[in-house]
């Protein structure tokens, strides 16, 4: 009898897992809460690392398609101080795919969706409860009254994972606040800002705050303002005037990124799980991505989620008659891999919002042999 595999969550991790399983002839159903692929914005751009995100796409058989969609020029980034002085300017080799080329999240998700059978994703299925069944497996209950059964349940359902509660009660902590804006058709409507941001990322680093901007493949600019985790209501950040007041004294050419936003700012809390979170193995269930190891958004989240998916899929393919053995092997390897990455992410997050962030980040980017992946825009 076939093992029925349910994947809760149709983000990058869940879709990568479904795709690699499909390549091995293993069926899985992805249950996704959104109504369809275009139901909401998928966020900004991300850089895929050769040893994680790109490796997962290679195992998914999608490396060539990734190269056709990716923007190696998006690796370019500049770091400025509040006066507009350039502290760091990194330019990749033209057309080089050897580093960490950027790709819009929407384009990457579409690439994965297009690689799956049409019935692989059950849209408008928001998981609200998973109940262990006698004899193994889980009964799944979805918002709106839908239900399903599975033998193996994989939680790829993000920061607020429902599946996580089956394995651990690890609490989330508030580590930062991110305020986002978008500037559409920047080359035509705001050519000065388009030139300022360039083809990649711009970070303007002040004391305990970062104003960042990122060019997307559709010509828009995504603006992200990173602030410390203070006990302040999010509504405080919904006014452009209030946000601009936080940057009093900054060069007007930089704060123009805030003024040019198409709509009022959108704030959200950035949360993380405790570093070193583990759980005792439970039969038939595991977690990948943010559900397993939610970290500050400094460039590792999507990459590690996709690598989780690739490693779990490989174990399930190698042990088709014993999914519990596959899950155990995956979890032990994942815990070992993630621990130092989560610690690094926490350190970088603290550094970026410190009083000495400009000096610290400049040293961080100029002392090593490669450009680290840090993302204050919070993708």
TrEMBL record:
Protein name in the entry: Flavin-dependent monooxygenase
Keyword NADP among record annotations: yes
Residues involved in NADPH binding: 40
Location of this chain's protein in the cell: Cytoplasm
Provenance organism: Micromonospora qiuiae
Coiled coil regions in record: none
Signal peptide: none
Quaternary structure annotation from Swiss-Prot or TrEMBL: Monomer.
Domain of life per record: Bacteria
UniProt binding sites for FAD: 47, 105, 290
EC number: 1.14.13.-
Top EC class, one word: oxidoreductase
Cofactor(s), by name: FAD
Pfam families: FAD_binding_3 (PF01494)
Function: An FAD-requiring monooxygenase active on some tetracycline antibiotic derivatives, which leads to their inactivation. Hydroxylates carbon 11a of tetracycline and some analogs.
PANTHER family associated with the record: FAD DEPENDENT OXIDOREDUCTASE DOMAIN-CONTAINING PROTEIN (PTHR46972:SF1), MONOOXYGENASE ASQM-RELATED (PTHR46972)
InterPro entries linked to this entry: FAD-bd, FAD/NAD-bd_sf, TetX_monooxygenase
Domain notes: Consists of an N-terminal FAD-binding domain with a Rossman fold and a C-terminal substrate-binding domain.
Chief localization: cytoplasm
Catalysed transformations (reactions): a tetracycline + NADPH + O2 + H(+) = an 11a-hydroxytetracycline + NADP(+) + H2O
Keywords: Cytoplasm, FAD, Flavoprotein, Monooxygenase, NADP, Nucleotide-binding, Oxidoreductase
Family statement: Belongs to the aromatic-ring hydroxylase family. TetX subfamily.
Keyword Cell cycle: no
Domain FAD-binding intervals: 2-198, 279-318
């Amino acid at each position: 009898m076939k093992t029925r595999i349910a994947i809760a969550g149709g983000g990058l991790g869940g879709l990568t897992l479904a795709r690699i399983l499909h390549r091995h002839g293993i069926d899985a159903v992805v249950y996704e809460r959104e109504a369809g692929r275009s139901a909401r914005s998928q966020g900004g751009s991300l850089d895929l690392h050769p040893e994680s995100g790109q490796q997962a796409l290679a195992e998914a058989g999608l490396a060539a398609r990734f190269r056709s969609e990716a923007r190696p020029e998006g690796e370019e980034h500049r770091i400025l101080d509040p006066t507009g002085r350039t502290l760091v300017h990194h330019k990749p080799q033209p057309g080089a795919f050897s580093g960490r080329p950027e790709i819009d999240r929407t384009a990457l998700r579409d690439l994965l969706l297009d690689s799956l059978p049409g019935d692989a994703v059950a849209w408008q299925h928001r998981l609200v409860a998973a109940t262990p069944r006698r004899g193994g497996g889980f009964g799944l209950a979805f918002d709106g009254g839908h239900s399903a059964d599975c033998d193996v349940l994989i939680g790829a359902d993000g920061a607020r994972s429902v599946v996580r509660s089956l394995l651990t009660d690890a609490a989330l902590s508030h580590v930062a606040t991110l305020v986002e804006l978008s500037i559409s058709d920047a080359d035509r409507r705001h050519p000065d800002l388009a030139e300022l941001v360039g083809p990649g990322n711009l970070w303007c680093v002040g004391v305990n705050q970062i104003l960042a901007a990122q060019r997307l493949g559709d010509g828009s600019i995504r603006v992200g303002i990173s602030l410390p985790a203070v006990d302040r209501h999010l509504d405080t950040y919904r006014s452009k005037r209030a946000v601009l007041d936080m940057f009093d004294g900054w060069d007007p050419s930089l704060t123009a990124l805030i003024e040019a936003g198409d709509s009022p700012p959108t704030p959200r809390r950035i949360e993380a799980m405790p570093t070193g979170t583990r759980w005792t193995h439970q039969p038939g269930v595991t977690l990948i991505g943010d559900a397993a190891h939610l970290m500050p958004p400094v460039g590792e989240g999507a990459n590690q989620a996709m690598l989780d998916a690739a490693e779990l899929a490989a174990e399930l393919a190698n042990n088709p008659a014993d999914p519990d053995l596959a899950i155990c092997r995956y979890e032990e390897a994942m815990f070992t891999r993630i621990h130092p990455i989560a610690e690094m992410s926490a350190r970088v997050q603290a550094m970026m919002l410190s009083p000495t962030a400009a000096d610290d980040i400049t040293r961080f980017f100029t002392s090593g042999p490669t450009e680290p992946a840090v993302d204050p825009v919070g993708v």
